[in-house]
């Protein structure tokens, strides 16, 4: 977004926050340099000093995945505090309203600039993350369903960043105190991410594998699947915890007859559930973002009639 092509409130917004906007490409460039260095190290004999060649890369990508989950909170906090609440707290927004800019245009400029930066920045950082994740794909903590890779490699991270922007625009007007608005926005955005993260694997029904006979062992789903539950199934179709037989007989391969155990079951999500789950969660998050935006402009209209 070139400053020369912008006019009115958007030009002012970019000028006001140009340092923060430049921080995003700087962060992308720095992240790319680190990932390239870590991938080189993983393929270099010096990596054996860590006992495994990809040791530094694995550690770095673990931290990177967790850091990316805080991106929506940081973006939302910046919109709520420095972009909205600080101007309302200090009264400087009145200057913008005297320059032939309507309150709606003033807020829309904040949201537009922040939204474009959020989409571009999160997409670029996700691309860098994918570069470092590729050699680790499918290994421990780097499967498609793990926290971190799941969000960053799909569309939900961008959606959460837009949600952070929308919540920041709303909370910034309601709280009107810079630090308090930043804290509340981070808390609200984080709670939404935690709640939907806890519910995401309930969106699609699980698939179930069964195996007859306790002694045959637990059936194994495809290796790239996400196991959700395992246990014993009775002849009547009922389910029992997997430790039931052991608690009664002291053995996993022998069950008392009164339990009427017929075999094992495993509930799991196949890798094919990744993109449908991503699409549904993304749609839900974007709907929440749209609702927060509507509320932000409703608050604005109510205070500037």
> How many DSSP-defined strands?
4
Unreliable runs: 47-51
In quaternary terms, these chains amount to single chain
Helix content: 55-70%
Largest sheet: 4 strands, antiparallel
Structure annotation, total helices: 11
Shape estimate: elongated
What is the N-to-C order of secondary-structure elements (H for helix, E for strand)?
Answer: HHHHHHHHHEEEHEH
Distance between the termini: 32 Å
Structural class call reads alpha+beta
Indicate the proportion of strand residues. Answer: 5-15%
Average the pLDDT over all residues and give the rounded result: 88
Q: Order of strands across the widest beta sheet? A: 1-4-2-3
Rg to the nearest angstrom?
25 Å
In total, the number of domains comes to 2
